[in-house]
Amino acid sequence: MELGFFIKGLIVGFLASIPLGPVGVLCIQRTINKGRFSGIISGMGADTVDSFFALVAALGLTFIINFIEEQQFFIQIIGGGVVVFLGAKIFYTNPVKQIRRHRRKKNKLIEDYFSVLFLTISNPLAIFLFVAAFAGIGIVSSKDNSLDSSLIVGGVFVGAMAWWAILTFFIDLFRKRFRLKQLWWINKIAGVILVIFGALAMLTIFIE
Questions:
Q1: DSSP symbols for 26-92
Q2: Where are the domains of the chain?
Q3: Which one-letter DSSP state was computed for residue 183?
């Protein structure tokens, strides 16, 4: 029965990672500009935070969830600002410099990891996605069992990493076909998309 919790967590982690939001755009951009390993490490940053959110949801830590609900306005403003900043940075990034840095092995993977980690943690509203998902498949009741919760969170981590590995693998297959002009446009488009994501996140809170 315990294996069932792991499998359910794996499915939730995989499906929760598929929508190409800001993190997905960022991982694709980095895979194209820096290589598959950079994309996977970036995805791992998001996966780490998602696993923490899944743990909160599985354990039913209501005081954290209540805090997020109370501070939703400020959290969403900060999160949107982070996305806008990263989008602007990518927009003005020279892909030639990124490629040269990667070839010289000076690509700082630790920066790739933590930048996505901070981007993901700035949107803790994702906790409610896991709360809803766990409730939908009937595993919230396991919150009093630490073993079950660990299996659920472990499944979420493995499932999410499977998605990032698959995504970066297929993006990397076509990476060498891109020319410098195309890379330049990819940076511009990815940057604009991220800025739009961030701006919408901030505007939505005022509309609501």
A1: HHHHHHHHH-HHHHHHHHHHHHHHHHHHHHHHHHT-HHHHHHHHHTHHHHHHHHHHHHHHHHHHHHT
A2: 2-71+94-177
A3: H
Neighbours of 71 (CB within 10 A): 12
C-alpha to C-alpha distance for 53 and 69, rounded to whole angstroms: 14
- Whether 50 and 120 have beta carbons less than 8 Å apart is answered as yes
Task: Give the torsion sign (CA, 150, 116, 176, 97).
Answer: negative
**Cβ(167)–Cβ(27) below 8 Å:** yes
Handedness of CA 33, 37, 42, 47 (dihedral sign): positive
Instruction: Determine the Cα–Cα distance for residues 30 and 37; give it in Å rounded to an integer.
Output: 9
Mean pLDDT confidence for 149-173:
91
Give the separation between CA 82 and CA 79, rounded to whole angstroms.
5
Tens of pLDDT, residues 87-139: 898 888 776 665 555 555 556 788 889 989 988 888 887 888 888 888 777 66
pLDDT of residue 58: 82
Per residue in 142-158, pLDDT (tens digit) is: 445 566 788 889 999 99
Q: How many helices (H) and strands (E) does the chain have?
A: 10, 0
For 179-190, what is the mean pLDDT? 78
- For the chain, give the number of residues: 208
Q: What is the DSSP letter of 19?
A: S
| pTM exceeding the 0.70 threshold for the entire prediction | yes
C-alpha 124 chain-centroid distance: 11
